[in-house]
Write a structure and sequence with these properties.
By secondary structure, the protein is of the alpha/beta class. It contains six helices and eight strands.
Length: 225
Amino acid sequence: MNAQGVLRPHRAARRDALVVVTTDGELPEWVVGWRRVGRRVRQVSAAGPLPTIEVITAFAGTCVLLVGDAAAFHPHPTRVVAAVRDLPDDDAVMIEAAAAAKRLGDELVLAHVVPVSFAERSVGMDEALEHGRRVLESGVERLARAAPGLTVIPRLLRQRPHELVGEELDADLLVLGGPRPHVPAHLGLVASSAIQHAHCQVLLVPRPAQRVVRAGRAAGERRGR
């Protein structure tokens, strides 16, 4: 995000590149359409969660779309859900999710999860809920500027973060933060769970390097003074 609060993709995310991991060699039609408008799409075959993880870590710093068996999922997803943990760390997640939603249905669900480990009277629960509300409010405001016309539905969820990818998830495409452009690359719990359990296509968007995140937060704090 720049000084005016406008979403900007980080260079390390290689915004114009997309690696598509399939098991049956078929590209979804909506991805083919993305290629037609100039996005660089590279198709990679993988079978099983371990080879998929190897592909994701090998392409750390690039967006990776997991479609698995294309016939198993909706060929033209319409419900896009973006899971955001914190901002500006997940700015790129929102950018990619908004771009997909604009192509697929003009509606995006922006979700933030507050773990159920915070019991109703836990110390810190109120702060966690308030943080979630701030993240969602900020995300909606930024997307209103970055993607005019896109309907954004904020959802504050109480569950374990990795449960977001379970059977109850109502999504055709789930957009999550992926590995930072580090070596060796590291997959978080939610992304690892999505690889194994998500019942929809999953787009992993690389988060920026930690030094970029710290710089973004410091700039936000200066603007808030």
